[in-house]
């Protein structure tokens, strides 16, 4: 990564990597929240039916 002779990333590549990383973090947080809430949703549906 920091070895001499390697090419530098352009600003567009850095920005694309930042966007991808933030989307990955958002998806992981959203998935965690959905997994936490899923038992409550299942119980609600069972009681509703």
Tell me what the structure shows:
The radius of gyration is 20 Å and the shape is rod-shaped. The chain is 78% helix and 0% strand. It has one domain (11-49). It is mainly α and 49 residues long. The protein has one helix and no strands. The protein has one helix spanning 11-48.
Helix content: over 70%
How many helical elements? Answer: 1
What Rg, in angstroms, do the CA atoms define?
A: 20 Å
Give the termini separation.
Answer: 56 Å
How are the elements arranged and paired?
Layout (H helix, E strand, L loop, with lengths): L10 H38 L1
Subcellular location: Mitochondrion outer membrane
Keywords: Membrane, Mitochondrion, Mitochondrion outer membrane, Protein transport, Transmembrane, Transmembrane helix, Transport
Family: Belongs to the Tom5 family.
Could you name the key traits of this structure?
49 residues, 1 helix, rod-shaped
Sum this structure up briefly:
This protein is mainly α and 49 residues long. Helix content is 78%, strand content 0%. It has one helix and no strands.
């Amino acid at each position: 990564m920091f070895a001499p002779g390697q090419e530098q990333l352009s600003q567009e590549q850095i920005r694309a990597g930042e966007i991808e990383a933030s989307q990955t973090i958002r998806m992981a947080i959203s998935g965690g929240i959905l997994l936490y809430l899923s038992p409550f949703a299942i119980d609600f549906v069972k009681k509703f039916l």
